[in-house]
Amino acid sequence: MYRKSSYGSELDQLIQLLSKLPGLGPRSARRAALQLIKRKDSLMRPLSTALAEVAEHVNPCTSCGNLDTTDPCHICDNTKRDISTICVVEDVADLWALERAGNYSGLYHVIGGSLSALDGVGPDDLNIASLIERALAKAVLEVIIATNATVDGQTTAHYISDRLKDCDVTVTRLAHGVPVGGELDYLDDGTLTAALKSRRPF
Amino acid sequence: MYRKSSYGSELDQLIQLLSKLPGLGPRSARRAALQLIKRKDSLMRPLSTALAEVAEHVNPCTSCGNLDTTDPCHICDNTKRDISTICVVEDVADLWALERAGNYSGLYHVIGGSLSALDGVGPDDLNIASLIERALAKAVLEVIIATNATVDGQTTAHYISDRLKDCDVTVTRLAHGVPVGGELDYLDDGTLTAALKSRRPF
Lengths: 202, 202
Prior knowledge:
Two copies of one chain form a homodimer.
Chain A: H1 9-18, H2 26-38, H3 40-57, E1 59-60, E2 67-68, E3 82-89, H4 92-101, E4 106-110, H5 129-135, E5 142-145, H6 151-163, E6 170-173, H7 189-197
Parallel strand pairs in A: 3-4, 3-5, 5-6
Antiparallel strand pairs in A: 1-2
Helix pairs in contact in A: 1-2
């Protein structure tokens, strides 16, 4: 749409790269580039350094798949955590979400996505084999499946629980129900039905 | 909200810097960071390099305020452009927008914002003195004021046209009217009134 010659080639390159970030389109990438130039010392140079450092030092943990500068990661390496429980999540973002909630003290296993016939993602594309291997260890007593509550996520959950049958572990999954702070009027039928079915004594 | 220790400090630093970009909040900054790590070689390292290069080489043109690797910029330096006309814009983004439209062949002058009593931006905070200086040159015949059609932008336009009274130039401004592709039903009264007032023979 715009002529390449409008900006210098360096700026053009920067804007093109920025527009590849999720959440930024061409217009917001241009705004971001201008903002960065206005704040060269407080934002642009530090961001450049931070990107290079993370690219250099942050890698997936070979045990659980979490991203960290150390391998094993600080969660696998933390002796205060409960090694009898493994929580299976689709992505590192989900692991972060659970860590922010701050109420889980076990270990994690990032499988790296969900099974999807449409996108051609099969069991071999996910880190499921390594999960089974970990679950076979005597110390592991429970595997919590915390995949997303989407169709693909639930398919993946069923597949994993099938594969875990031969391991001597309890397999559990997250509860469905009314989100804390949520209004019933805005909830879908499926969630309401699940919340009603799993009702608990007051 | 989230505990700092959740990610490594390098990742934390990167996410914090990303979330300062316009258009990215904490959540999308986390998503962007994960995306970057997934595409280290195709996105993360190139972005780091591009940021460093732009920080090093791109600076405002001392004549017009455009951002470029050369000074004067490629527009001021282009002998094919019409040096008798200067288009005054608030920001480099506005200059880019006019360049993308691709129908203006004169020079520019970026004043770097608009007058704003609320934000405490006075005439001395903008590059207006240098505009007057440029307008005094014999070669300059017309100054087009292309500040935004906001209250601040229009205040700035009036102030600039006042200051340009002593220069021997024609002062013009962009036309108001119906945007191309726009529907009358969705336009505000002010725009419709302006479009009606400035109607032209068919």
